[in-house]
Design a protein that fits this description.
8 strands; alpha+beta; 176 residues; three-stranded antiparallel sheet; Metal Binding Protein, Guanine Nucleotide Exchange Factor, Chain A; 23% strand
Length: 176
């Protein structure tokens, strides 16, 4: 009887611990910094193990392994509520986008029509999905951010849609 109780207690503890860790990962993925983080001045190079220590599993999957988050997820809904501010790379803190270039494309992912600081965003051809797309990466740490699409008819100054994974972004609200 005591062994069954111990096993049940251990199982409950394990489930509770996993739930707490998942909640912490969600909080970290939707992190909003109160102050602008220190931006890197040089290229950021880390081992996989070093990245795994500073990123959530979801951030690691997306930023380091070119994954894609689910459309219309919690991070996207949080993004839609965010006001004026800047969006930095969640991996290295490089400034990537501004709320001034943010728009609602209806696609389910954060969308911008232009990078805030173009030297921190690079693009390259991506054929991994069986067709040609343009991948968007952080210029400082090579983190995968998403893709950019052109000529879709959005009423923006560039007619481009930088479709970005929200967990790869760290929002810093503008100072009032």
């Amino acid at each position: 009887m005591k062994t069954k109780f111990t096993l049940i207690l251990a199982a409950i503890t394990l489930v509770f611990s996993a739930a707490c860790a998942e909640e912490k990962n969600k909080e970290k993925a939707m992190e909003t910094a109160k102050e602008a983080p220190q931006e890197p001045t040089e290229k950021v190079v880390k081992t996989d193990e070093e990245w795994k220590k500073i990123l959530t599993p979801e951030q690691y999957r997306i930023l380091r392994k070119s994954g894609t988050e689910a459309a219309h997820g919690d991070v996207y809904h949080e993004f839609k509520k965010q006001g004026e501010g800047a969006y930095h790379c969640a991996g290295c803190n490089a400034l990537l986008f501004s709320s001034k270039e943010k728009f609602d494309s209806g696609c389910g992912w954060p969308s911008f029509y232009d990078p805030a600081k173009a030297q921190n965003v690079t693009t390259k051809t991506d054929t991994s999905g069986g067709y040609v797309r343009t991948e968007v990466n952080c210029a400082k740490c090579d983190g995968h951010l998403g893709h950019v699409f052109e000529g879709e008819g959005f009423n923006t100054p560039t007619d481009k849609r930088y479709c970005i994974n929200g967990v790869g972004l760290k929002f810093v609200p503008a100072k009032k």
